[in-house]
Here is the input.
Amino acid sequence: MSVEYKTTFASIDNFNKGGVQMIAGNIKDYVFSNVYEVASKYAPYERVVVAKNLVYTIESCKAEGESPWYTCSHDEFAIAFDYDIEVHYIKMDDTSFIDDEKDGSFRLDDKPAGQYMGKITLSRGHQALLPEKTAYSFKSAKPATLVFQAILGDESNEKWPEICLT
Amino acid sequence: MTDLTAAVNNEQTGYQDFPVGSFNFRRDEYFAYIDYPDGEYVMPIDAYLKALMRDVAWGFFYGTVNFDSVFGTMNHYGNVDLFIGSHNEEYINNDKDFMENFPSEELMEVFQAMLADWTIEGFDPFAAPQETGTAWGPKNGNNDEAISRKRQVAQRMIGIPGDTEIRSDETGYTVNRHFQDVDQSQPVVEAEPGFEDQIHGFNLWAHLSRSVETWNPSIVSVCKQSLLCPTSEEFILPVEHGNDRVEWFVQVSDEIIWEIKDGKSSKPRASLVMRAGDVACMPADIRHQGFSPKRSMLVVWENGSPEILEKIKNGTVPRVGVEF
Here is the structure.
């Protein structure tokens, strides 16, 4: 018999979180959360750390409407986990204010002066490069889940007791 | 004294023995036999070869590769322990454990030769059970093509000019039978003139849907020492991976059940059910084995920092990812 397989994804408005059956030890050791649930709980573009290994992070946020502009001294990466999200890029005229030693992204006061580089429209499962020392912003018509491969920085929020199984 | 070692007739089966240090490895039509000074340990040959494949492909990996609850390797990054029962409470308590340390290159050379000789034509130890033949029977050719695959390792990001290529039909990566419904569209990149090579995106889920192997993470993007290592999983992770550092999983699709045991004693600790979007940390003192009822997508997230190695060596590596 041939089987037609259905791949089960999830979204910010439709997820089915798993869990932990403990036998011994502390459930908090597994730091168990869900990127969709986290994105659904907090304000648009409020990045919440869902995984951390020394200074490195995976962060989740809700993309909705237009975001502020951000930049970073190093590459970061963003993945659209459910709905469409635009990423806009600007090559800034002045990058001298970026501290090479400072990890993590930070917010710019305004849309920076520079040359518009273009945009990428991400759909579910699409990953985008956020190149070092480039300004970027996001735009999404409806709430969507955006996950970052990043480093702990000004925009990273740690809310472990609120997001994890205890 | 009675000789308890199994009779293996290489003249009949055509396989070779592989001695290394105090160990001797033998196979017959169904089983692998691991002889060591205190006795002999037996494993089914298919399970053995699937575990051996990962140990070889991962270069002894991070920490301990338990072929099962008794036999395995422990990586010290330059040298490696080969052990029977050294991570099993009953063996240790009854003084039945045995361990020998080898330079990594020496043991790897033996493992590679064993894998090549014992993997027969039609059997792919990297593949899901329904996508390969069997490991049973006498020596019948080899499958060097399957066992010598190199995992894709991006230097910055998959698909960037000069970096590792995106999987496609043209490059020999067809969509897996379980992922026929996965969207294959690519991001719409609208770069202004002159910036075509500076902004980049690709369909990571489509890339994963075309993975040939199971339980073999590749690297798709690199943020300094942060390595995003997605993989597709089906059936059982052929090893119990014993962590020597924290490791994180992000479940992308479907479901994986993780059986968690104590890293040293092998006593059960927990069972995790991970569904799409779930994130979990594997502590540094456990071993884990995954069960994926349908082929699923998983992001394994690793920290490749040399700082971690230093912390492992001096005993200061964090046991858990976060304390709260």
User: Anything to note?
Assistant: The longest helix of chain A spans residues 35-41. The mean pLDDT of chain A is 97. Residues 29-155 of chain A form a domain with the Jelly Rolls fold (CATH 2.60.120.10).
